[in-house]
Amino acid sequence: MKPTIAPFPAARPRRLRNTPALRSLVQETTLSVGDLIWPVFVREGENIEEPVPSMPGVVRRSVDRIVEAAKEAADLGIPVICLFPYTEGDKRTSDCAEAWNPDNLSNRATRAIKEAVPEIAIMTDVALDPYSDTGQDGFVIDGYVANDETIEALVKQALSQAEAGVDIIGPSDMMDGRIGALRSALEGAGHKDVALMSYSAKYASAFYGPFRDAVGAAGALKGDKKTYQMDPANSDEALRMVERDLMEGADMVMVKPGMPYLDICRRVKDSFGVPTFAYQVSGEYAMIQAAAQNGWIDGDKAMVESLMAFKRAGCDGILTYFAPLIAKGLLGR
Ligand code: PBG
């Protein structure tokens, strides 16, 4: 399709920009509450909401408070809540056994939400970093994050999450072959309808810093994640990762981080036409909030613009810490 535009003054593109009514009429992209996935941090205890200093406005909640938050999100029409456990030192071990403990924090939160707020879908992360003493997403053997040994643990972790009742599993570990292994394990265990949203194009990024504070991994992390997360310089590779994950049984794919990788979102959507998501990560959130707190940008407007950009780039939805805030804005509450 060739764009057509008449020469000035036959064409005055400003004609269609002059009033809110006309702007709304020709708006190409829309953002709605149904596009949002809300990542939240869960911690032990009761009746606790503890601020995460590097993510202004974000808190870690005890399970009872997470249930209330899920209820609030469901009332706003947010379709999915995504749980991340904050783990204390003694839960981090070299065998990562807490990851598949049926009664771990994440699984308890899942059951509590399922019971109280059945209408919201629950997503969980599959990766060992909340449970490893190294802060890495897999087992470190001889100084290297071992692929195949890690997959065995990820399968156990995913099965315990499915057993607890999650709707969507998000493998964020970037091990090779994990989607196929998870898919066949889920099928084998009768969890046929648990969806996989693969972190297919996950980059080794500096923008995850505040998240690592939020889940207690910052102090634990030794080294970097460059032997499994992708090089920010690469784009063709992202398409290969997405294709591979789709072949192995992913239902949805994700690009992460978001805003610096909008080109990847667009290429993925155009190449495969599958449900495509972006994760507006902790560092992106923190940048907007920090600038807004200093009065350097209008935080509300920057939030809306940043999220609209994902839709324009072809994403079907966005994981964002702004979810409740933007939902209230969209609903005029
Ligand atoms: C863990 C995981 C990370 C994030 C989501 N899952 C951090 C990492 O890979 O180090 C980052 C989310 C964010 O920054 O908001 N595998």
TrEMBL record:
PROSITE patterns for this protein: D_ALA_DEHYDRATASE
InterPro entries: ALAD, ALAD_AS, Aldolase_TIM
Keyword field: Heme biosynthesis, Lyase, Porphyrin biosynthesis
SUPFAM superfamilies linked to this entry: Aldolase
Enzyme class: lyase
Pathway(s): Porphyrin-containing compound metabolism; protoporphyrin-IX biosynthesis; coproporphyrinogen-III from 5-aminolevulinate: step 1/4
Highest taxon of the lineage: Bacteria
Reactions accelerated catalytically: 2 5-aminolevulinate = porphobilinogen + 2 H2O + H(+)
Transit peptide recorded as keyword: no
GO molecular function, one term: porphobilinogen synthase activity
EC assignment: 4.2.1.24
Key word Lyase present: yes
Family annotation (Pfam families): ALAD
Family in the record: Belongs to the ALAD family.
Subunit details: Homooctamer.
PANTHER family: DELTA-AMINOLEVULINIC ACID DEHYDRATASE
Protein name: Delta-aminolevulinic acid dehydratase
Originating gene: hemB
